[in-house]
Amino acid sequence: MQGPGDRPALKAGCFLFLFSLCGCAAAQLDVIRVGPAFVPRRESEVEVFSSRSETRRQWGGIGIIHGKHIPASSEKMMESQRRKARAAAAKLGADGVIIVFDAVSPGPDLGTYHEPEVYLSALAIKYAATASTPIAK
C-alpha cells in the first residue's frame, strides 16, 4: 500500500524539474559592470572579437563577463556561452565584446582523470569616440 509520500510519478516530476533548474544555472554568466551605465543596444550591433589585437579603435572596458566551467570538447556549450556573452554586453550598452575561453587548471586530484574544462572570459568594451553617448538613467 502506498502512502501519501509514495507517488513515483510525483517524485520523478520533481526530480526532472530540479534537474532542469540545475541545467539552466550551469549556463548562466556572471556579469560585473566596471564603468558607467550606457543605454542597452541590440545584440546585432555588438561586434565580437577573439583577442584585443582584433579591435580597430581605442576603447575602454565597461564590463567583465565570466562563464561557468564547461567541457572543452563541447562546441555547443561554448557557442551558447558566446551568444549569452554578446547578449550581456548588449545589455551593458557595449560596442563590442572580446571573448576567450581559458583552460581550467586541474585540481589537486593527482592521478585522477578529469575531462579538460574551459570557462568563458569576456570583456565588454565601449569605443572611446562613442563613450560620450547618453548615459542610461
SSE order, one letter for each helix or strand: HEEEEHEE
Q: Give the helix tally.
A: 2
Secondary structure tally: strands: 6
Q: Helical amount among residues, as a percent range?
A: 25-40%
Which CATH first-tier class would you pick?
Answer: Alpha Beta
Describe this structure in words.
The chain is an alpha+beta fold. 27% of the residues lie in helices and 28% in strands. The chain is built from 2 helices and 6 strands. The termini are far apart. Mean pLDDT is 82; it is low at 10-26.
Compact description:
It contains 2 helices and 6 strands. The chain is α+β, with helices and mostly antiparallel strands. The protein has a single domain, classed as Hypothetical protein apc22750. Chain B (Translation Initiation Factor IF3, 2-Layer Sandwich), CATH 3.30.110.
Describe the secondary-structure layout.
Elements: H1 8-26, E1 29-33, E2 47-49, E3 59-67, E4 70-71, H2 75-92, E5 96-103, E6 117-127
Parallel strand pairs: 2-5
Antiparallel strand pairs: 1-3, 3-6, 4-6, 5-6
Key phrases:
137 residues, Translation Initiation Factor IF3, alpha+beta, 6 strands, single chain, 6-stranded mixed β-sheet
